[in-house]
Structures are given as C-alpha cells and as structure tokens.
Amino acid sequence: IDTYHRSGVYPVDLPARLGSEAAGVIDAVGEGVAGFAVGDRVGTFGPARGAYATARNVAATQLLALPDDVDDRTAAALLLKGCTTEALVERCARVRAGQTARVWAA
C-alpha cells in the first residue's frame, strides 16, 4: 500500500503522512488503555498512515502484540499480507478442513 501511495495509484492529499505498516516498542500508554504497557513490542498496518516517522501516536485498537521471535522488519512486512491472506482464505474462499489452498499474491 505504501508504494501505491507514493506512486499515486492510491492518491493522498498533500502534504501527506506516508507509511502504513510498522513495528516498534511502546514508550507511553494513554489513560484508559488496557492490554498494552510501556516496553511492549507492537505492530500496525493502518489504516492511519505515518509509519515513516521516528515516533507517533497510534490508537490501541490499531495495534497487534508481536511475539519475541519475530523481528520488527519481518513483522512490519508481514502484517498486512497476513491479514490479506486470512481474509482471502477464511472469508472469501471459505477454505475448510481437508481442503488445500495456495495463495499466490497476498
């Protein structure tokens, strides 16, 4: 999606914040936020843009906890693709136990 924004395939109003997929560490938690703490590793794939920034505010509803054995670069690259694959397999094709599916381009 990031490359589509940069190339103009998906136009954005300028000036624009770019970057949808990101991974990082929480350095502050807002009042009333549950389920996340300072120091937690998290990832996001939007819809809010701004992932190219060094630091930013992200709504807790847009965050996913990351396992320790997945590095930030891999996590940021896989989140949107993984969710796209889930949508295609689970919601569109409705693949069931015993069926085989190959997802070519998520």
Description:
Helices cover about 25% and strands about 10% of the residues. It starts with a helix and ends in a 14-residue tail after the last helix. The chain has about 110 residues and is an alpha+beta fold. The longest helix has 21 residues, at about 70-90. It has 2 helices and 3 strands. The model has no long low-confidence stretch (mean pLDDT about 90). It has helices at about 1-5, 70-90; strands at about 20-25, 40-45, 65. About 10% of the residues are buried. The chain has a 3-stranded antiparallel sheet, with helices on one face. The radius of gyration is 16 Å and the shape is globular.
Name the structural class.
alpha+beta
Straight-line distance between termini:
12 Å
| Biggest sheet statistics | 3 strands, antiparallel
> Which runs of at least 5 residues are low in confidence (pLDDT < 50)?
none
Shape: globular
Approximately how much beta-strand content do the residues carry?
A: 5-15%
Round the mean pLDDT to the nearest integer and report it. Answer: 90
Total strands: 3
Strand order of the largest sheet: 1-2-3
Helix amount? 25-40%
What features would you highlight for this structure?
three-stranded antiparallel β-sheet; 2 helices; alpha+beta
